[in-house]
Amino acid sequence: MERLREVLAYRRLGFRLREVAELIGDPSTDAVAHLCRLRGLLLERRDRVDAMVAAIDRELAARAKGLNVTPEEQLEMLGAQLYDTIGGAYTATRRTEPRIAAQIWDALEDAQTVLNVGAGTGSYEPADRDVTAVEPSAVMRGQRPTGSAPCVAAAAENLPFEDQSFDVAMAVSTVHHWEDPIAGLREMRRVARRVVVLTFDTDEPGWQDRFWLTRDYLPEFAAVLAQFPSLAGMADAIGAHAEPVPIPWDCADGLFEAYWRRPGAYLEDHVRRAMSVWTNVGPQAEQRAVRSLSKDLDSGRWAERNSDLVSLASADLGLRLLVA
């Protein structure tokens, strides 16, 4: 009955049968985890519908008064926050990757009190420390598992804590979403004695060519990070050194580069929905990239271009750990 319930519930939420099979076939996920995931997806859908109804009501009231409605106000019904757009897919594909987690947790050293900034659904939070989470998105907060660390609704740029309140502040794959990354990093430095940040390196010349997906199919990715601070600038802001973070070929965390040796995954809609890159580049670039990749996979061109990847167990695709 549990398995049948899970299949029917995921189907009702719009998942395809192959996607459902992958979800319920995951040996690391039990009935409780599935219920938490389904609850998060339903809450995200409810919150999004409520927000859309409220935005429509405001637009109807404005039009009834003969007021002009701006393009920004018209788009409000589609949602304003990036994580409120992509957050619903996180529980399906974004999990803690043990090998990346080990590197992050080693950098925490003997810290007992940890602040996780931009915490999302709680991936990479160490279970053996006293963790406090900070997450601005209600959708993401609603998907945090039962029993996870207490979570405060706040932004990185304005952390509601006294100076030096924590042994260490950590942030994992979130800095590129902050309105002011440097200000957020300095806030982390203010409230904690040490800082550990997983981010992305755009300093290296030709960095777009490190990953075949951005090199051959999604050149728009460079524009997405055009205003992102340099790795050197971020390191200077908190007095950090940078360590490379290799991505294993079977990475459990569905981050943008995770499927570098499993290209067919990028054809799956639910996989892309949990990656902010696709929302940022827009539907036209996304559809073109997917069509082109699908064509090259069918023809064997992708395999021919990337034959050197088959023997690699991990790859350096620009992930960096800043440790201060």
TrEMBL record:
It holds the Pfam family Methyltransf_11. InterPro entries: DNA-bd_dom_put_sf (IPR009061), MerR-type_HTH_dom (IPR000551), Methyltransf_11 (IPR013216), SAM-dependent_MTases_sf (IPR029063). PROSITE patterns: HTH_MERR_2. Residues 1-26 form the HTH merR-type domain. This is MerR family transcriptional regulator. It comes from Yinghuangia aomiensis.
